[in-house]
């Protein structure tokens, strides 16, 4: 334990997942003494044992943080570019809806396990001390002692700390310990839908069996499938279904039910997933929920970030990106010096509104992905959106672009997105193509209603 003002600052991180490893790197590189305690074993020795989504969409916010940590190059070496959404209609037609203007505005599919390995290695190289098989089991905040349990032999270990950072994910043990001594205003809202992962193997010739540079979507109203490419030429398919109703995880119970569902609703995907029954029966269904927390820190003794503070549903592909942005924000506050409690409070003031905004946008995106990407009104609004972004680049930017390709605070993107959406609905009302629009009137409306965009953070 180290509390003297001019000694090297010390911090204790809980969780060596995505956020924990990145924050450890940022602080260790700045000369801090960093100890990271992780419940699982070292994935560099035994292979990645993660329980959740196999691949993730990485966007600009996440890449910016990776650049600051010196990890971007290594991560990008195994990333697969996704230019847009490839929508698979029920009749088998497909349509690529680009995310941005060109290949400078794309997202990247990265393998969670490989990403974690890279980040752990970079954290260790930066000087962070990584302790594996150390699951936080309790905290005495008055004595500043944390207790860890070794899952191999059940032994308990006590460690003194100055401050704890909870990067231990949605089921955070640190959050539970903080909740025992303070009211964190915690509330979890379950979506009522869950997910299951399936795999598309490489084609017979060893290449990708469908277009690799896209995020594939099979929107079907109340439910959907998506598929993201992996660098070993497979795709991870995620089936999202309601928990109740028909179809749901209540009615689709085994591999045979899953095959019948795919035959009816995802017919072009079915031949691509040869082990559908095995994958469906072997892989667990993951719950989806949003975690709202009013209070992220306990004076200077503990603070939460990433999923531990604000888990969200995965439909904007931003949970990790947001967690990485948290790491940069917290590192900046800590490295500025001064009182740690003040730094934690300032971090919460900055990031809580941002987290709330991206949580709301992630929920909205579920409806958009499963129900709107093949709807005529939506497609016309998207066409106008693209046109306005070209005619007024200083005033109009699609919300997806603000969230994905830029780093303005999420709440700014949320607010502008709402105003822009109202405009799109208004301008396309009564039209079924852009040809009948009065462009002088459209341009004047945009200038009158939207002030110039703020510069990126
Ligand atoms: P985690 O990655 O969960 O890491 C927590 C770490 O803490 C783990 O290593 C865990 O073992 C460890 N730990 C847990 N308990 C303890 C304990 N008691 N003591 C010590 N260590 C502990 N985000 C995106 O940006 N893009 C996407 O495309 C995307 N897709 C997703 C798809 C799905 C299906 C899901 C479920 C999520 C997706 N996300 C996505 C969200 C993303 O996975 C999370 O936001 C991200 O993993 C959060 O990182 P974290 O470090 O906060 O938590």
TrEMBL record:
<keyword id="KW-0274">FAD</keyword>
<keyword id="KW-0521">NADP</keyword>
<comment type="function">
    <text>Catalyzes the hydroxylation of L-kynurenine (L-Kyn) to form 3-hydroxy-L-kynurenine (L-3OHKyn). Required for synthesis of quinolinic acid.</text>
</comment>
<keyword id="KW-0662">Pyridine nucleotide biosynthesis</keyword>
<dbReference type="InterPro" id="IPR036188">
    <property type="entry name" value="FAD/NAD-bd_sf"/>
</dbReference>
<keyword id="KW-0560">Oxidoreductase</keyword>
<dbReference type="InterPro" id="IPR027545">
    <property type="entry name" value="Kynurenine_monooxygenase"/>
</dbReference>
<dbReference type="InterPro" id="IPR002938">
    <property type="entry name" value="FAD-bd"/>
</dbReference>
<dbReference type="Pfam" id="PF01494">
    <property type="entry name" value="FAD_binding_3"/>
</dbReference>
<comment type="pathway">
    <text>Cofactor biosynthesis; NAD(+) biosynthesis; quinolinate from L-kynurenine: step 1/3.</text>
</comment>
<keyword id="KW-0503">Monooxygenase</keyword>
<comment type="similarity">
    <text>Belongs to the aromatic-ring hydroxylase family. KMO subfamily.</text>
</comment>
<feature type="domain" description="FAD-binding">
    <location>
        <begin position="12"/>
        <end position="356"/>
    </location>
</feature>
<protein>
    <recommendedName>
        <fullName>Kynurenine 3-monooxygenase</fullName>
        <ecNumber>1.14.13.9</ecNumber>
    </recommendedName>
</protein>
<keyword id="KW-0285">Flavoprotein</keyword>
